[in-house]
């Protein structure tokens, strides 16, 4: 019995860009259902005593990360431009992806937000940029944002972030399959294999 | 012109075990020369303001690491037992691997030390255990240790650790190819590709 792969992502996370670009195709190819799980990494880092991205806290590691991103994007055929601001706030985009997690367009939205942040250096912390992205993928930004920012809409992202903490997530991207966690873009293949074997 | 892969490793490092087990075969298969570079991770972590393994500093991440090690070892067909002490001191073993880095038996020694630490839970911080390992790979432990612990022998490891800091290493395993750094067992294939393209 194939289990679904839950893809836990944060729009500010560099390595989540790599996974977001390929997870839908990879799951389809493996015959594994995909569940999009938008959450906020800030509270998860905070619970570990970190108040910034570890890539900013440890600059030597951070410098390497940007080089690694360039190489990994090249390997995957993905455009990449180092963002002029990092990490960017992702609240509205994360709320939309959480509240509309079952929408048929959620994958297109997620990929478009990552592309905006990491290939086009657009400021995804700006609500107007996020609204433009919703329109660009052919959806009605006013309606989409309204639904994602009602008290009920906001509660979806808050609940997901609390669930991430309860389930022991400590970074992004993470994959959860049948209760087992896999961390990092480099572990997507392990997660898929686990889903097929579960 | 194929460039060599410098394999920078620390015997206390879990993920270095994965690379140590496969780097010699992987280089041979790719037609890439291999250079063994033993160094100490403690001063490198210290330069980043860390006085312990990050896996101990961030326990949630550390717990995941052990699960990930189990899975990765299973994928590679490697024995694995979580060590009863972590991280273990590695000074004598690191001095031997540094001072005898060009010896034809250095690969066998490196693999045997990692196997002792991460498969057999032997205390590689104990000089008698290290001596036994040298004997087990068919070398004369008295002569090997004597050469590695002269002032000149000790200077090799000290110089390598200083070089690691100067070249921007921040963790292990790391690979350096033609001046480019690749971090982590997951990047061995990128390093090999870079060596063949250089």
From TrEMBL, chains A, B:
Catalysed reactions, as listed in the record: 2-hydroxychromene-2-carboxylate = (3E)-4-(2-hydroxyphenyl)-2-oxobut-3-enoate
UniProt key word Nucleotidyltransferase: no
Residue span(s) of domain DSBA-like thioredoxin: 5-191
GO biological process assignments: glutathione metabolic process; naphthalene catabolic process
Domain of life: Bacteria
Coiled-coil residues: none
Keywords, alphabetical: Isomerase
Family: Belongs to the GST superfamily. NadH family.
Name of the protein described by the UniProt record: 2-hydroxychromene-2-carboxylate isomerase
Lineage start: Bacteria, Pseudomonadati, Pseudomonadota, Alphaproteobacteria, Rhodobacterales
């Amino acid at each position: 019995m194939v289990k679904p792969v839950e893809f836990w992502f944060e729009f500010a996370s560099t390595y989540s860009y790599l996974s977001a670009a390929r997870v839908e195709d990879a799951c389809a190819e493996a015959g594994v259902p995909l569940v999009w799980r938008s959450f906020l990494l800030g509270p998860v880092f905070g619970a570990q005593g970190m108040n910034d991205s570890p890539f900013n806290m440890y600059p030597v590691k951070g410098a390497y990360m940007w080089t690694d991103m360039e190489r990994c994007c090249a390997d995957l055929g993905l455009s990449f431009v180092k963002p002029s601001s990092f990490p960017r706030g992702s609240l509205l985009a994360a709320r939309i992806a959480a509240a509309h997690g079952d929408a048929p367009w959620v994958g297109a939205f997620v990929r478009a937000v990552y592309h905006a942040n990491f290939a086009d250096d657009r400021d995804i912390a700006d609500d107007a940029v996020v609204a433009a992205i919703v329109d660009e993928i052919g959806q009605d930004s006013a309606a989409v944002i309204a639904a994602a920012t009602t008290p009920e809409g906001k509660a979806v992202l808050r609940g997901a972030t609390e669930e991430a903490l309860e389930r022991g997530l400590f970074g992004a991207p993470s994959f959860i399959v049948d209760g087992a966690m896999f961390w990092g873009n480099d572990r997507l293949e392990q997660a898929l294999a686990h889903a097929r074997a579960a």
